[in-house]
Amino acid sequence: MKLFNFLSRIFRASGDLAIDLGTANTLVWHSKKGLIINEPSVVAVMEYKGVKNVVAVGNEAKKMLGRTPADVKAIRPLRDGVIADFEVAEAMLSYFIKKAMEGGNRFFRPRVVIGVPSLITPVEKRAVIEAAELAGAADVFLIEEPMAAAIGVGLPVDQPIGNMIVDIGGGTTEVAVISMAGIVCSTSLKVAGDEFDEAIVNYIRRKYSLHIGERTAEQIKINIGAAIEIEPEKSMEVFGRDAVTGIPRNIIVTQKDVVEACAEQVRAVISAIKMTLEKTPPELSADIYEKGIFFSGGGSLLRGLGILVERETGIKAHISEDALLGVVKGCAKVLEDIRLLARVNASAR
Ligand SMILES: Nc1ncnc2c1ncn2[C@@H]1O[C@H](COP(=O)(O)OP(=O)(O)OP(=O)(O)O)[C@@H](O)[C@H]1O
Ligand SMILES: [Mg+2]
User: Fold this and answer.
1) Would you say the CB of residue 152 lies under 6 angstroms from ligand 1?
2) 70 found inside a domain
3) Are residues 127 and 29 both part of a single domain?
4) Ligand 1 mean position, distance from CA 298 (Å)
5) What is the CATH number of the domain that holds 276?
6) Are residues 81 and 183 in the same domain?
7) Using the 8-state DSSP alphabet, how is residue 289 labeled?
8) In this structure, are 117 and 237 located in the same domain?
9) Pocket test for ligand 1, best of 93, 173, 221, 223 (most atoms within 8 A of CB)
10) 119: nearest Cα among 145, 90, 147, 153
11) Is 218 a pocket residue for ligand 1 (Cβ < 6 Å)?
12) Does residue 233 sit in the same domain as residue 114?
């Protein structure tokens, strides 16, 4: 036993990994070095006679989105919160784990905690675990994203207290009420950042007869987007292709445009929060009413969202500045707390 403890201490010394395998971004936290990878979940693949070859992963691959020649495809292997392309998702996870372990001791394999969408199927769980093991992980644990996010924002998830977390990512919005390390009730919808972008593309095509790409739409959302009209009113110049003539031209898009474009999607998120509150047992509702609703995920950074939530529910909204780190921070905390890990581990469920 002593030898085991001694070995495990050395083993720990080489560091473990916490990973947020997100639809939009993959983040890796190293227990000794902190956040070491924060890159888009995009893989550029060249396909020849049915065989896929990975050309680039992460930042490099995202630059290629919408700009690749016919034989190279920039793929987002996770879509709508589920694994859309198994093979490519495995390749991506393996690339990030290997990159995170670069320079480390080859003989010590890390423990890895991975935040996964709560809609993931048992087969997909198996695939994620296997991909991580193949990439060199010793033990792999999975945690459902809302649980990881709640831990990440500092909620006392293992207490008999109602905690509400809303994680608005790229592919999914997950609303969950957590008490005693379990998800008491939840709602998951496939409306999040990506859908906002799509709504902006469609709106600009309808209103201005201009075709813009997904990446431009995302830039508009991040720079001037909002859930409601708030001061200061913002606008930005946008380039695209005229829907009729096909010639490139520019327009000025305003914050009001984005509010209108995303109104339906924002409504859907608010409804999901209200629906989950309605399903919540009364004792826990009282806790949530007192403490407020906590947010994580990049989508929660949409300006004015907190104000709208408070107006619609009468409950305080807490949106942290590092909302994008919620899940990975939660996974990192769990790495340090074996007892909590045992309670929230979703690997075998
Ligand atoms: N300041 C911002 N305002 C609005 N949206 C933002 C902002 N910053 C990032 N986003 C959006 O947040 C989304 C990415 O968030 P996040 O990294 O949390 O998603 P993810 O974890 O990869 O996805 P999922 O949880 O659905 O698997 C993208 O759609 C991005 O455009
Ligand atoms: Mg996420």
Assistant:
1) no
2) no
3) yes
4) 3
5) 3.30.420.40
6) no
7) H
8) no
9) 221
10) 145
11) yes
12) no
Residues 176 and 309 in one domain: yes
Q: How far apart are the CA of 105 and the centre of ligand 2, in A?
A: 30
Quick check: is 270 in a domain? yes
Measure 3 CA to ligand 1 centroid, in angstroms.
45
C-alpha 196/C-alpha 275 separation (Å) is 21
Neighbours of 191 (CB within 10 A): 24
Is 59 within the bounds of a domain?
Answer: no
pLDDT of the chain, 349 residues: tens digit per residue: 566 555 555 555 578 999 999 999 999 999 999 999 999 999 999 888 878 889 999 999 988 877 777 778 888 998 877 788 888 998 999 999 999 988 776 677 899 999 998 878 898 899 899 989 988 899 999 999 999 999 999 999 999 999 999 999 999 999 999 999 999 999 999 999 999 999 999 999 999 999 999 999 999 999 999 999 999 999 999 999 999 999 999 999 999 999 999 999 999 999 999 999 999 999 999 999 999 999 999 999 999 999 999 999 999 999 999 999 999 999 999 999 999 999 999 886 6
Asked if residues 131 and 119 have their Cβ atoms less than 8 Å apart, the reply is no
For residues 311 and 340, membership in a common domain is answered with no
CB of residue 324 inside a 6 A radius of ligand 1: yes
Domain with 212 in it: 154-319
Residue 98, CA distances (Å) to 17, 105, 166 in order: 11, 12, 31
Q: What's the CA gap between 8 and 110, in Å, rounded?
A: 11
